[in-house]
Amino acid sequence: MEPDAALVARAVAGDREVFGALVMRYQESVRRVTRAVTGNAEDADDAAQDAFLAALDRLETYDPSRPFGPWLMRIASNAAIDLVRRRTVRAAQPLEPFYASQDQSPAAAAEAAEIRRELAAALADLPPRQRAALTLFDVEGYAHAEIAAILSVPEGTVRSDVFHARRALRKALRVYGPEMEG
Amino acid sequence: MDEHLKRYLAPGDDGLAFTEAVLFRASGALARRRQATAEGPTWSLLEIWARPWVIAAVLLLAFAVVVPSRPWSQGPAVTADSGFAADLLAASNDSEVVLSVALGN
Question: Do A119 and B8 touch (CB under 8 A)?
């Protein structure tokens, strides 16, 4: 797989295929973060698209000696948080990914739907930055220091954000048993 | 919990439509980048207009600084050696200047 820095160098020259490869490589992570922040699939994809376009505008400012992911995540997080602040986004509602589309018994499907609703409600109660911090830490696997750089906040703030967000989600999912509190 | 959150936030598609949408919106910016790369650095209209003037101004400034300092550029010292100007310069007070002017000297 071609390194990110090499792809960026070619995308700077306007190579459509290469920029598309970069988008494909990162679209899932970026969209997960924007979905966590906005709580809505349509707004999330708007913010994610804006993030990729902003990244294209600023490609020259990317330092190839540093990892591309956090640089892009910073743009994506800001795009999603800005979107939430700029306008009243569509009401948070359970996202509909493949969560319920897998082969499940009716009982399991009903429980999955209930978990989605609980997750949506718990996330909706969190401030946008906490949602971003939680997703970057628990889903995307970034370290606290990296998230601090991505969100432009002190590392202690990130630790606090992740702690509070995890506690809120655990509380929401407690009824589904201890395995949900992982 | 992490796994549930990851599955909950997963877009649930292969990303192709999303990528196409991004590329569609980025087509103008990508075309400009390709054009800029193909043509190399270009002068903007302002730069094209201003460039000759900047060069001319620098040359004039250099000329104005260098020429007076050359020995051959120094002309004879200006002296008021005779006539009306000499009277004016030699006059010790205002009344003499007025008189000199009145007499047409």
Answer: yes
